Amino acid sequence: MKHVTIGVLLPAFLTAACDSVSTPDPAADRQAIAAATTQFQAAENAGSVDQFRGFFADDLVMMGPDGPPVTGADSVAALMRVFHDAFAVQVEYNSQEIVVFGDWAFDRAISRSASSGERPR
Question: Which end of the chain, N or C, is less surrounded by CB atoms within 10 Å?
């Protein structure tokens, strides 16, 4: 009789454990990505490098025209601070497609930007 009890209880416990584990919610992930894009856009338009620095991965690599790659979140933030100190920036990100697949996602977007000011010489 002990085997029957274990045989019945083990599947019940496993089912309960599986129900308590959160299941992926791609729709919620897409909403979170869209919200993060909106927050990043607002921080960039405000020139708040400290706010949008929080979105950078530590191993970020920024590759701009006519210059060497800038590596590391702190180095990129320092470069962005120089840029935002010299220019008033206005950006707009329009997501065209947000795809979520497990731990992996991307946001394909069209961006528009304008800057005013004078670059120091």
Answer: C
Would you say residue 14 lies in a domain?
A: no
Q: What Cα–Cα distance (Å) separates residue 26 from each residue in 19, 95, 108?
A: 18, 16, 16
Question: Where in the sequence is the domain holding 103, given as residue range(s)?
Answer: 24-116
Q: How far apart are CA 121 and CA 109, in angstroms?
A: 33
CATH code of the domain covering residue 96: 3.10.450.50
Asked if the structure places residue 11 within a domain, the reply is no
Whether residue 103 is contained in a domain is answered as yes
Strand partners, 61: 71
- Domain count within the chain: 1
Q: Is 84 helix (H, G, I), strand (E, B) or coil?
A: helix
pLDDT digits (tens, 9 = 90+) for 97-110: 999 998 899 999 99
What tokens appear for 103 in the block?
Answer: 């731990």
Per-residue pLDDT reduced to its tens digit, 25-68: 999 999 999 999 999 999 999 999 999 999 999 999 999 889 99
Q: What is the CA radius of gyration of the chain?
A: 23
Contact 4, 65 (CB under 8 A): no
Q: Which amino acid is at 73?
A: A
